[in-house]
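User: tokens in, sequence out, please.
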């Protein structure tokens, strides 16, 4: 399918909770992943979308970023379609639903709502994206600081792939598009990074 859509400890600065002006800086195809739910494992196409909170800076001066991993499907009962429609400020047409290129969201401005959530044992706090919406009329978003990156598993172990974190490379390497191939051998599982999430006026 590619990019066509039919905290665990350590010192880590959490993006502040609340609504923030943002722009999308990365769209990363994670391929078809095994997902366990209520004791059952099923295969789902996944994509990771990353936003830069353009007006919120970390202590080192860099802008905060936050990511959401979501099922890569425009099914009506999924999470991606309502998120994108809220972001666009309009519904998808039947033609859109036949295949919509997710790279269109790169650099697109929006409002991102960040929530802080505790781990089950209460020992850790994570920052997650609860919703994405179009900018209010007349509001402008600052330009991106981070590089715009789009990646599809069909790109293989490209220069872009090799620059990803150990965790992200490992995640992609375990997709069925690669692990089912005879010439691909997944590497040892990397540790989940802090804050990683495991699910005119129209910007795109």
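Assistant: Sequence out:
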């Amino acid at each position: 399918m590619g990019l066509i859509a039919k905290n665990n400890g350590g010192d880590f600065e959490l993006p502040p909770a609340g609504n923030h002006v943002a722009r999308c800086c990365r769209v990363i195809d994670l391929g078809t992943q095994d997902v366990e739910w209520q004791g059952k494992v099923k295969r789902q196409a996944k994509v990771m979308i990353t936003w830069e909170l353009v007006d919120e800076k970390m202590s080192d001066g860099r802008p905060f970023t936050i990511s959401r991993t979501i099922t890569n499907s425009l099914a009506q009962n999924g999470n991606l379609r309502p998120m994108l429609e809220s972001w666009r400020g309009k519904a998808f047409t039947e033609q859109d639903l036949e295949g919509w290129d997710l790279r269109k969201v790169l650099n697109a401005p929006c409002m991102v709502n960040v929530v802080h959530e505790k781990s089950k044992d209460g020992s850790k706090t994570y920052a997650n994206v609860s919703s994405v919406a179009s900018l209010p009329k007349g509001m402008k978003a600052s330009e991106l600081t981070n590089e715009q990156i789009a990646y599809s598993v069909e790109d293989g172990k490209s220069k872009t792939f090799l620059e990803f974190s150990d965790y992200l490379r490992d995640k992609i390497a375990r997709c069925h598009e690669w692990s089912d191939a005879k010439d691909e051998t997944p590497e040892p599982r990397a540790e989940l990074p802090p804050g990683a999430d495991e699910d005119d006026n129209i910007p795109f």
